[in-house]
Structures are given as C-alpha cells and as structure tokens.
User: What shape does this take?
Amino acid sequence: MALSISRAANAGKPLRGLKALWRDRRGATALEFAMVAMPFIMMIMACFELALIVLVSVSLDIATEKAAREIRTGVTTSSTSLSDFKTKICNNISWLGSSCVGNLQVDVRTYDNFALAAQATTPIKDGAYDSTKMSYAIGGGSKIQLVRAYYQWKMFTPFLKTGMTTLSNGNAVLSSKVVFRNEPF
Assistant: This one.
C-alpha cells in the first residue's frame, strides 16, 4: 500500500525524481576515475617510453664512441666490412637484442678538415634513408673521421609518434655522431 501512495505522490512532480538523481553523489568517484584513468595511463606509458628512448639514445652514443675509437686507433681499418662495423656497435648495446643490426644504419666518412665534417647533411630524406647520402669510408692515419649511427625505434605511444617520428613507417630515429682525427698509425 505504501508503494502506491508514493507513486501517486510523485505522479504530479516528475522533476522531483530528476533533481534527486542529480543530487545523488554515489558513484561520482567511479565516474571521475573513468574519465581520468585513460589519459593518466597514457601519460605514464609516454613517460616510460621517453625514459626508454633516452636510455637507448645514451647507449647508442656510448656504443658508437667505442666502435669509433677502434677506427681512431687503427684497430678497425678499411678492410673491415660495414656489417662487421655495425656488429661492433650492436655488441656494445647487446641488451637491445638481435634486431639491432637490422635497425641500425651507419655512415662513416673521411674528411680533410673539421670544417668539412661539420657541413655533413643528414641521410634522411622524405621519411626514408637516402642511400646516396650514406657512405662507409675509413681513412688512414691522421685523417678526420665522421662516424654517424642511426637507430630506428618503434614507437608504441600514439601521441608521441606525431612529435618524434622522422621516418614514413612511423619509427623514430635515434642518432649518434662522433668526429675525430685518427691517430698517426
């Protein structure tokens, strides 16, 4: 009987039920979490990916420097193949796994002076590596060397892709450059 009386009392006031619903705060926290959770998780993923990119970039710098030192001291000479040189770099960043050699591009050039080495342009053009701008030439003693390494990094955070990619396939390119004069060997 009480049920029919309350229906009859609210029958003339349909807005009263909506106002009560509007004032009801149960579930507000769950709704707020649902609205904030996805952007928050994406930001955490972006932070992890940026940290990983910095780690890979620093590791690539160190690996390129170690491999370039072998050119500088005469351990690596012009008789060393490009694939062997890429393997030397990848051995110094072996934690990246077996995909390192496939994702690594190397450009080694010899110059007469440091000013010419400073004018070297990037071998990336229109979202791809321009093979005509890539070289592998190791000079003799006292020559100026430019060693550049480019590593393709597959991005997994969607909104970082637009700000960091340089290749048409959506991958970012991490690069390292070392310029030095060979020892007189």
